[in-house]
Design a protein that fits this description.
The complex is a heterodimer of chains A (89) and B (175). Chain A has 89 residues and is an all-alpha fold. Chain A has five helices and no strands. Chain A starts with a helix and ends in a 13-residue tail after the last helix. Classes of the chains: A mainly alpha (89), B alpha+beta (175).
Chain lengths: 89, 175
Amino acid sequence: MRGDRDKGHDKKKRRGPPRRKVCPFCADKNARIDYKNPAAIKRLVTERGKIVPRRISGVCAKHQREVALAVKRARHIALMPYASTGAAA
Amino acid sequence: MSAARVFQKYETVVVTRTDAGAEAQRKLYEKLTEQMEKAGAKHVRFELWGKRRLAFPIGKSLKGLYLYYVYLADGDFVKDLNRTLKLSTIVLRYLTVRIGEDINPETFDYEKEKQFDALPTEAEEAEHRPMTGWESEYPATRARPEAESDEDEDEDDERAARREQAERGDKDEEG
């Protein structure tokens, strides 16, 4: 069993370990996550207005929770879209 | 020592219709500040964010006037305030968030955050007349100020008259 698994692993071409992403909000202590400033959290949503998962954005769990809350608040007061076709914005 | 009321600090964003008019905006502002006074809440800050394009249309509105209040109050007051906002016909959206806990209103530093923006006046309101969706889609066809449009009409008339004359002239020559 173990031999098989090792074989499968060897077949994969991996060039070194994946780069560890650093949470932008942990790196910059001054960066605030604020629903009132949609420009700052714009890069954490897709063009369609979806919240980017943290496995992609690299945001840590703690800050991702804050981001999600901020985006949802911003959506409620129409500062950010719930959904957009991409072409409109 | 008398038991001082312990307040929470709240911020409220209110989005109102841009076509409501300065009068209605002022009335809403007065209503809210009066309500704060009556309940003993402390109004700390008022910001006018101005007209912004909504991320999505709400009802028939494409733009909204954003107002931002910061105040010290207790939870019961927020309930009442939200009720007022809910019942108002010019409010599109509102959002209240608690931003500070257990604040003594007597020792709070009001000056630090003090800012009270002026509401748009009637004249300003008239200047930035809210555009309908149709006008923003086709900016070239937007209604021009009256003086200008009068001149334009005259010019058009003159030009039309000249063209008519010229045409007549052409015909005369031919005939």
